[in-house]
Amino acid sequence: MSPIPFTRTRDAYLISTDPSLLSPTAISAAFSSPAMYWCTPLSSSALQLCLSSSLCLGLYRSTSSSQPVGLGTTPKPEQIGLARLITDNVTFAYLTDVYVVPEEQGKGLGTWLVECVDEVLEGMEGLRRAILVTGEGKREEFYERKLGMRRVERGKAGLVIMNRLGEGAAEKLRE
Fold first, then answer.
1. What does the alpha-carbon distance between residue 8 and residue 70 come to, in Å, rounded to a whole number?
2. Using only C-alpha atoms, what is the Rg of the chain?
3. Helix 24-32 crosses helix 44-52 at what angle (to 10 degrees)?
4. Cα gap 122→142, rounded to integer Å
5. Strand bridging mode 150-154 / 78-87
6. Which of 124, 132, 136, 169 would staple 95 via disulfide (CB 3.0–4.6 Å)?
7. What is the pLDDT of residue 120?
8. Peptide bond into 77 cis (omega under 30)
9. What is the DSSP annotation of 86-154?
10. What's the pLDDT tens digit per position in 28-85?
């Protein structure tokens, strides 16, 4: 069963789970950027497998000043960010590869992207658990505030494993 398609627009920007909009070229360029300190580039075939095996929320900017951004618009919008959920689409989700390209940062787009991730997680009726790994400090506080994540464990090099229980979690059912 495929997840319900998710699309939101704001000004000249679009967030969508439509896999046909994903730009492996843009994602590969982002993964190769020094700004993406947590990852290294993947081969084309590995990236394709990674994307096709995940629920991806792509963040896009309209490339037309005369047409609002949206699905089915031409030219195709430019990919400027991503949030990738490794998930079975029902009980579990691991959030990774969240980014907005540096030239688009400072506009609230990353916050909006994570708020959209929250909407997608809320829509997973049997969700037991969502997790992520991030750095301590402001990033940890951000995910706690925006996604309701809580620290599970502190890892090496200042990394933190965070967890959010869904309505399907046994711990929640006992409450």
1. 9
2. 16
3. 110
4. 18
5. unpaired
6. 132
7. 96
8. no
9. EE-SSSEEEEEEEEE-GGGTTSSHHHHHHHHHHHHHHT-TT--EEEEEEETTHHHHHHHHHH--EEEEE
10. 999 999 888 888 899 999 999 999 999 999 999 987 765 555 555 567 899 999 999 9
Compute the distance between CA of residue 15 and CA of residue 23 in angstroms, rounded to an integer.
Answer: 13
Using CB atoms within 10 Å of the CB of residue 145, give its burial: 0 to 12 exposed, 13 to 18 middle, 19+ buried: exposed
pLDDT per position as a tens digit, 123-173: 998 999 999 999 877 889 999 999 999 999 777 777 899 999 998 888 766
What global pTM score does this model have? 0.90
Assign 39 to helix, strand or coil: coil
In this structure, are residues 130 and 121 in contact, taking their beta carbons and an 8 Å threshold?
Answer: yes
CA distance 34 to 64: 29
Task: Over range 19-32, report the average pLDDT.
Answer: 95
Q: Yes or no: say if 133 and 162 are a contact pair by the CB < 8 Å rule.
A: yes
Q: How would you classify residue 108: left for phi > 0, otherwise alpha for psi between -120 and 50, otherwise beta?
A: left
Q: What is the dihedral of CA 99, 101, 102, 108, to 10 degrees?
A: -70
Closest CA to 60 of 78, 83, 84, 74: 78
| Cα angle, residue 48 at apex, residues 123 and 87 outer, rounded to 5° | 25
